[in-house]
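call fold(seq) -> tokens
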Amino acid sequence: LREEKIVDVQVIEGGGGGKGGKGGGGSATVTTVTYKYYGTWAIALCEGQADVNRIWMNSKLVYENAAGLLAPYVTIYHGTEDQLPDPTMEAAEGVGNVPAYRGTTYVVFDDVPLEDAGNTIPNTECEIVKTPSDSDFGTIVSQLCQQVGLTPGQYDVSLLVEDVIGYVRSRTMSARSAIAPLQTISAFNVSESGGVIRFIPTLNATNTGITISQDDLAVTDSDQSPDSLATRRIQELEIPKIVEVIYADSDQNYDVGVHRAFNPVAKSETTSQLSLPAVLNSIQAKGIAQRFNDAI
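ret:
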């Protein structure tokens, strides 16, 4: 943060006048001190190259590339492999002490006036666009697998071709935890076969399935029969009346969106919520809500 002190000195001349026209005059000096605050910070947005379309501060649009709304205090680095260290960061940390963060898209905000934000760093949101090759479930799952040391020959994501608008991983987590919400969004299963982890969509029209005989449903090492498949029954009052999907709505500037699916025969008044770390449009959210409602 940078503080700017503004001193305004005014001399106020006194006026004459009084009873019978008598009276004295004079002057007074009034000093007004005003402080203004400015903030400088940087935000890493994503791995790889991307374009930044729009930026909001406390929900106010301050940058829009397509419309020519360019903020003078914004410097964007697009994650190229030849980008140089930011001079503002070098001025603070010293030349040679700041990496160029090549391969990372990030934004530097330099000397931003903070008066409209209550003299605090505002909540900053950025809309980014990556190339289409990076926007399908297969690419995301592949990256997660490689980050935990798996090689391309140890997993198969060839069937995960559905497009992704956006996916958020806001903290460090295991690959299993990161993939779980993707399964909710795109409806795919994970299985291991022949030493390869396979990701198979459950709603793929080309996935016609195979017939398995009753004798092949389980494998045992002895003559004992395997445990039977358990079926759980729940009371009608446990069935939720509403399935509610919460997501970032791409149709509403990425504000929080909510889509609901109703079960007309449910006797309860409960709501089941799915909070998804993803950017969806209303059609996708409707499909997910209806799919979970039908599965109950």
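The radius of gyration is 30 Å.
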